[in-house]
């Protein structure tokens, strides 16, 4: 459906610089509708301030490309490593995640200066002899990293504005339209040995390897994601009040947080409304349900007397599916593929160390940047998380 | 290695009663060395007071067999459902887990009376016409449930006594000897399609089904578990202080709780000691390391440049392994097998609702009752838990 | 009304031993109705297990009298200092308060042996030449300390049994009857300079000194405490649901804990019941309201358009008051009197270090031992505490 | 020393408007050096975002003066009541204190528009016939309320910048100079009956009434506050490591938070530095120690073998003291004076409902606005708070 960021055949210098500029610019385009104050706040630990995303993605290029590989590079500000390092233990101390929203400085203007400075240096670097071929994968990683943060940015912006009692409008033209789904057909995949995992010659994350064989029983999988209409039926039939559909952990979560609907849904004057990038609106019943936790996805499937697909089932069936609107919770835990190897050094911390306690999501969403999705992509979140653009696909 | 509790061919009435008595008596034998006070306390939420185990296992027989199936059965005490229901939401309100250690009543003597009463009624019941064949699986479930609690009892007793500053002795003759391991060979299993899951005609838990095919790459697996000697090398080489061996979640756990060794280990006067059922003793280097979390198991494997086996690998290789001393952390998350079905009603809550966020352990331990282990058994705990008799087996 | 434990004129050796035995025996009499299990649990951090009280009071005599002053005294168990030291930082490490309920050992039987051993040694000591006159105040402190714990024991026993879903009966004959109050008259005290604080020649705590002058405006004070009848009117008129009667901190407490009535009150089948030492009973409307927090006492007074007395007002009016049924919350914070001096050494930690954030209670209660009350006695608790036998007296 | 905001003799219309403008402008002057981002964050629950202070003080005038008293007044934004109400339960729902830092909107620019709008309306109102004499006290309350927030603003700005790893400079010229103190003399006040509490004809808060008689013993009180030099001696002599100087609650606080020095002090390269409005600087030993908790103040006094004065002692001696640099912790709890009466309605919530668990501070600080201090002023904070400009004065 979508295409990969790059292929190894297209590594001409000019391409890299254009690609760098294109992706870097897109990040700033996402932030254009924000007011300065919107860049600063961190309402919950899982949501980072937009200005932190702007700085952190820039820090990645400075730390992993410019500092080690551009001779005589002067860091923009030596204190920024402390502020913008997210979780790379190798690279020294870092502001802990819960504290990011306490930092008013560096200011948004200073961070944009930081971006401009690093971008100028990167332009020099990418056109220099120092940008040798063995650094191409590292640049690609940095660009894909920035694209991941573009999606996180949109989710975090939605959280910040959607939890403000004034429900401010972001700007609809920055976001693709939400599709509508009318089809509830299922396709059947036969028992057999299949291969999953990345095996192209473009970019992929380390967690998509090795490509390997899996044995699958015959299964059926819905070609479209679950809609708001269907999810409303679950709500109205008391799905949130009957423990029998829920994991024990999910039921505790429902009780503790008094969950009654997906994130951003509000029952106002006898109507279900939800917060969108255009403000508060009535639910569109034909759109795919969004912002549900794994617990909710699994409970919905149980109520439907079906189940969520595994990630292998999803990938094998992907060509038959209408995907790309929602990150779809699978019933697979996020674990290494056979033969998975962490890369050496700090970039080795990228994926492997998160392979416990999280669930895999497959597909992509309306917030995923163009050219940043593929059917082998393994996204992962804790099962209680709802701020991403998550949805449900049924299997049986 | 071990045999199952029963087989469907041996369902004569007299057998069931003898088996019931044998298992029920063993629970009380485990508690013989306790003082009354030891039955009462709950030092952490994961550890239940021994008297609660005694009551809860009894409540199971009363609630699922006697009440619905023995005509005119009089419950021993109508309030006990509230006290001894553990998590069956179907069966009504329950004392929440964190409150069990606050209850001094019912007294230990009253709970033993409760056991005696239910045992007498069960004896009548099992010899009556009311104990029809379709109830045999329910009885078997109750007996296996009690055996599971026998192991939990031993783990909880060890926790209670091992966290008392007086380090009281339990009584060694109640526990089998710990084996010593001298071998570090590995066996090799070839790539291929294998079947895992239970397919005998005896008892198994619902989570062991369906038996199904899996495709495995070629792998090697150690025939013996990791010893204290090997784990000491990990400690002494700084394994607990280098984040690179750890999952991010595990590293947070190490930092937050200042973990420096397995549970029950104490560094006293320049020697490593550990608390055992015989009190504080010097580490026996040839015994299998015990009471480690999944995080520690995974970090150890990473330090060894190996990995933990998956549960499928473990089961396929089981015949070649020396297992049964420790519950062995696998790198598999606890998820349903293809075709898994919850049973109808309250017993359907037994396993399925825990299938998120936990890791599978395979094998058995010195605390597992005789006749309560099989190679398809799927134990599961949260990755931070260490109070069970957990150990490590390496693969690559 | 009540008399003091001793006077300096009555310090003959035989008296001290008899007094010691009398007080020590009374502690054990209080515990007679308990089952072993009741001695062990600690439902909340503010409630200590009864066996801890038994050990701690004994540890006081061992640590402050026998060890330093009886030659060749052998401590019963060197580990007990760690277990039974409550808060004396001078005397070394201690089990933190939240952990007391996790300790099954020493057993109840062992603690009674400890008491017997220390009592035998104390008998020798009190009759020996080593018990010199300058040690009399220390013994008196130990005896008053034990009497304080007798009242705490009763409060903690009530909490343990009263929070058990089986509502077990303690034993009424161990407790004096609750008086009934029919009078709502007030007495008037004129403006003037008064003296408060202890100035007799018997025992008093350091916090009752120095006796000093205070200037009081004219005030009125109720001669009887507030009854359940009056408090029911507060409840029924919505007192718990209107913030305007409450301190901000009290209102937060009401909201957070969903407080709707005094501790131990339950609204069952349209009637207000409360847990008493005789089990669950219907409210006796003429008894003094009991088990209220300072917040509730102050809110009630506000609702009545009156106020709580200060401790100086209370003491000055004491001769006119019917007191001794309830510890009466005053509107005075617990602070040092002019000229207050901590005593040197560990016993100096007795009172002074608590002189922040707590409120003073005056009087005594049905749980106070005979001969352990006087009108200058300053009891103190945090304003949210309700497990003591606390009540309300109005002033204006 | 300082003079009061107004006197009842000076209530000409023009005066009120000038005073209103003067005070409102000063708030904005304080914020001039801030960048937009600095207005938004809330690093801890006790620190409010500067933009919240700007809005809340404005909301006070809108809610209590314009809405009820200016005919046809149109509220600026009906949602602002929810955002900017701090604690007035009477006035409806409010954003809870911990959430203020999550709100990026209304933006800083919008809040300045809100201020401009309300100020214009207030100018009309204060010159209109609607501003009748009985409203003068309410306006005065609003102006004093705004002055209180000016000091809180400075404390919160210092906290926000001083906890940023970049230690940004505020702007020194916005703050008065810190005085130096060289004198350690004490003055003596004789035993007697004194009067305390406000009795002038200007403005005072309700908690300063009634003026009433107190009896004081003879005491001595230092004429100058404790300096950094003296406090350094306390640190260097191990004052933070010896429990005997501390309240039990204070010692727990020291242990839990690993307190080793006043807030904003950092031991860097063998020197004690502190964060000031001009950035990180070496300690000036002759300035008064600042940003200490009550616990630290009391422990310091104990170490000096002195004590803190009571608020009555402070007020009686005030004419002899060099005060105004620091809010001085007294050893008095914040409780009502004899005859204290809450005012009717929402403004009655101003002071009375906080009269539990807090300690009184007397004096004023370098952050107190001119004309907003008097010797009868009763400030109050919880004993652990250090973000205000608090200091120590000794007595004995």
Automatic annotation (TrEMBL), chains A, B, C, D:
List the InterPro entries.
Answer: CTDL_fold, DinB-like, EgtB, Sulfatase_Mod_Factor_Kinase, SUMF_dom, SUMF_sf
**Domain DinB-like as annotated: residue spans:** 22-151
Q: Which domain of life is it from?
A: Bacteria
Residue span, Sulfatase-modifying factor enzyme-like domain: 185-318
Q: Which UniProt keywords apply?
A: Iron, Oxidoreductase
Q: Does the keyword Nucleotide-binding apply?
A: no
Its annotated pathway reads:
Amino-acid biosynthesis; ergothioneine biosynthesis
Q: Which NCBIfam families match?
A: egtB_TIGR03440 (TIGR03440)
What name does UniProt use for this protein? Ergothioneine biosynthesis protein EgtB
Query: Taxonomy-wise, where does this protein's organism fall, top ranks first?
Result: Bacteria, Pseudomonadati, Bacteroidota, Flavobacteriia, Flavobacteriales
